[in-house]
Design brief:
The protein is of the alpha+beta class and 345 residues long. The chain has 14 helices and 11 strands. Helices cover 41% and strands 20% of the residues. The longest helix has 18 residues, at 151-168.
Length: 345
């Protein structure tokens, strides 16, 4: 029968899913598990959605490198598939029922003989973590004694797997942290590739090679945010690049790219937006003309038009408006002028 202490620990783990600091919440979740179930070591691992490798979020008794190496080895065994397909986490205690794979019990296999037993553990309990229907990680509890994880213990851990899955998912809080508009398309972009966000349309702007160069340049700049207007096909979008601030060990090195459909503000034409962008970085009409292969007279005409459309009394006022509202169509050469390095207030 589940005790009051176990129920309290389970409730606290559920509340931790609201925390944005995944690492701290994961560590606290393992401490709560230690109050609810016997353990001498434990690890909470996330699956990198691009590489498929396991990354430790939190651990008790396991250095991250050791935990990740063990997970990588375990994932190559037939017992890993057994863990993934079970709704009730299998344990070494229930070897006969749950840890049989390919005709061999886990405790008779090489992984137990060469990895688990030499580490001093005689019983272990492993659960597959899912979030939004996706496999996002693993949780493993280990003890030095035997017979620690009976059916009741396995059922208790099974009830906690959804909350632990929310903690392990690197995309879980990305939209919440940055308060994304309901209809915004969004992706996380890492050096290894693009990560989709649950419940979000993909950011179509990422299919644009020029925009991809801008994302890479933004990543290298160390900036915190870049706002822009960008065409996707025949439509325009407000696009924001943000240094991801979630504490997930996977997502925190990523750039969050969001896009929201829009019309060009103030009735500006695409060419006028280009001229305004270059004016905002301090270029003279002559420099703008050379960069855009226009005559100075044409550039002057564009400036006059955009001043009238934005209701700006001067070039300086139009520049301030462009910087304030992100009315920019930047190139990689413009980043030093437009990347925001102070957290938006």
């Amino acid at each position: 029968m589940i005790s009051h202490q176990q129920l309290a620990a389970a409730a606290r783990i559920g509340m931790l899913t609201r925390e944005r600091d995944t690492v701290a919440a994961g560590a606290q979740a393992l401490q709560e598990l230690a109050r609810a179930l016997p353990l001498d070591a434990a690890t909470l691992l996330a699956v990198d959605p691009i590489t498929g490798t396991h990354v430790q979020i939190a651990g008790i008794g396991y250095p991250a490198g050791t935990s990740e190496a063990l997970a990588a080895e375990f994932a190559s065994t037939p017992w890993y598939a057994n863990v993934v397909r079970r709704t009730l986490p299998p344990s070494i205690s229930e070897d006969v029922e749950d840890m049989t794979s390919g005709g061999q019990r886990f405790r008779n296999g090489w992984f137990y003989a060469e990895r688990v037993r030499p580490a001093g553990f005689r019983d272990a309990l492993t659960g597959a973590l899912r979030h939004h229907g996706r496999l996002v990680g693993l949780v493993n509890l280990s003890v030095e004694g035997t017979g620690a994880y009976d059916t009741e213990a396995r059922q208790l851990l099974a009830s906690l797997l959804p909350a632990l899955g929310a903690l392990a998912d690197p995309t879980a809080h990305t939209g919440d942290v940055h308060e994304l508009p309901a209809g915004a398309g969004a992706n996380l972009v890492t050096a290894q590739g693009v990560i989709d966000l649950p419940g979000r349309e993909a950011a179509g702007v990422l299919a644009d090679g020029e925009f991809g160069c801008l994302v890479r340049a933004f990543t290298a700049s160390g900036g915190l945010r870049l706002r822009a207007l960008w065409p996707v096909g025949r439509d325009w979008h407000r696009v924001v690049l943000r240094r991801c601030t979630t504490a997930s060990p996977i997502a925190r090195e990523a750039v969050l790219v969001t896009q929201t459909p829009t019309e060009l503000p103030y009735g500006l034409s695409p060419r006028e937006l280009e001229v305004l962008t270059r004016a905002a970085r301090g270029q003279t009409n002559q420099a703008i003309a050379q960069a855009l292969f226009l005559s100075p007279r044409t550039v002057h005409s564009h400036v006059e038009h955009l001043l009238r459309k934005t209701g700006s009394a001067s070039r300086a006022e139009a520049t301030a408006l462009a910087l304030r509202d992100g009315l920019l169509r930047p190139t990689t050469e413009d980043l030093e002028h437009f990347v925001e390095r102070i957290p938006p207030g």
